[in-house]
Specification:
The chain is an alpha/beta fold. It is about 50% helix and about 10% strand. The strands form 4 sheets. Strands 5, 6, 7, 8, 9, 10, 11, 12 and 13 form a 9-stranded mixed sheet that branches. Strands 1-4 form a two-stranded parallel sheet. Keywords: Membrane, Transmembrane, Transmembrane helix.
Amino acid sequence: MAVSFIRRFLRSPAQNGTAVEGDPTGDHADGPRVRRTVTARVITALACLLVLFALIAPNEVGRLTPGAFVRIPLEGILGVALVLVLPGGARRVAAAFLGVGFGLLAIVKVVDIGFYAVLGRPFDLVFDWPLAANAMEFLTTSVGRVGAIGSTVAAAVLACAVLVLMALSLLRLSRLVVRHNTTAARAAAVLGVAWLTCAVLGAQIVPGSPVAVVAFDRSLQVRTSLHDRKVFAAEAAVDAFRDTPGNELLTALRGKDVVLAFVESYGRDAVENPRFAPQVGAVLDAGNRRLRAAGFDSRSAFLTSPTSGGGSWLAHGTLLSGLWVDNQQRYQNLVKSDRLTLNGAFRRAGWRTVGVMPGITRAWPEGEFFGYDRVYDRWNLGYLGPRFNWGTPPDQYTLSAFQRFERATPRRARVMAEIPMVTSHAPWAPTPRLIDWKDVGDGSVFDGMPATGSQPDGVWRDPARVRAAYRGSIEYSLNTLISYLETYGNDDLVLIFLGDHQAAPIVTGHGAGHDAPITIVARDRSVLDRISGWGWQDGLKPGPKAPVWRMSAFRDRFLTAFGSQAGPTRSPAGRTSSASSPLSHGSRSAVR
């Protein structure tokens, strides 16, 4: 029935037995009439394809297979029914509105494809609009202001064109439905029964793609997203360390400088994916030997990040606050709150707290929320060298400046620093190389180095080169941290370094997960003795069976392990536990 209906849609008037002038029998048509008929048929077919794309096309490139299009959209059936029951004027208005709705759906699907390619998730209709400003800033850095504005205007024009074309397509198809109303009604009834049957049975031709599909199911998620504000507020109200006095916080780290280094895009795939693990693993194994020779020891595990492919600030907020911050609304509500962050705990306990943020290029009021006494951004780091990556100094300069400004200062307080290692941030090219620390100076020594490396324009034309550039940048960032410890490390330094999230799917492939390695390095053995109950593995590289915690669990467990008393912590499952409970040892099945 459905096939017959489609065939009749695509027939020319002559094929339906309509007579043509000069040919009373209707068996032959003149050339112009045939061309018009063929053109009309092509336009109708394109209209059908456009509507079907909006209704049934997957929103991930990896799922765009022929089998994924063998689906029945509920909205298509309801649309045919609506057209059949409405009178002429109302029908045209309804078709136009449906067209705009389907056009918006098509636009969201295209945006979803981009989000999956970069962040490994779909676009959130409530939370992700503020990311437009970040995208514009990234475009400006990458292709210049004119290129960024041009790209934005082109995207807006294309979106408007999609809305117009979809509305015209629905108007055209509605006329055909009315012209063949009996066949259309029968086809809608058959497809309706088929949709209901497949929905009840959960029928799938391609795994993950049900035959019975509701195209506007994303709209149902809006309600959940809108309710998330209350859910987050309830979670934030629980804080075991809110009122803990400073003299009881972090007592086991007194006299230590503590550096918390986020290695951008350093995800689990970096140490387990065969494309990267041999080289990255070799860096970590060699670093482990070098640091042991220098008297350091280390413990490693995995943390499950709330984000993937990007959104580093969500991971930072999650780890530092002990709350699960997986969208922009949660982040904005967090930084407006009085939540005690890990940085703030160090500050309350008497440490000087600093943020060394080479990627910050403008005012950053969030710094006060996180509890920094001083923020070193791109402009006050004293860097006079060339631009690397997306305009930032190399990691070696960042650590050198931190050492010079903070740790080398005489008669200073102990410092706790958060330092993002941004060389491993996309686009991962050009990658600097390590030099002697005594030669770093103001960074001008790096002049000429970017020109000798791979350039983003060339790298991003080939996924294999993207992956190679990613691996090289991770190796550089890790080698820089290891070299810093060898050069400036002592008994009074504790380094915590971790990945903020997995790299984009173009690097890892789809379904890579959200785990990122974390490592604590110290030369004072008593520091690592405090976390002996965590069950973390020896060395800089966590193995496949290393514990896995949610990133939001780290703050409470860290404050408990290094405080003067073992306060309660909230487990990832929401249960109250102590740092010595079996769950604290972590396991992939227990916390994910």
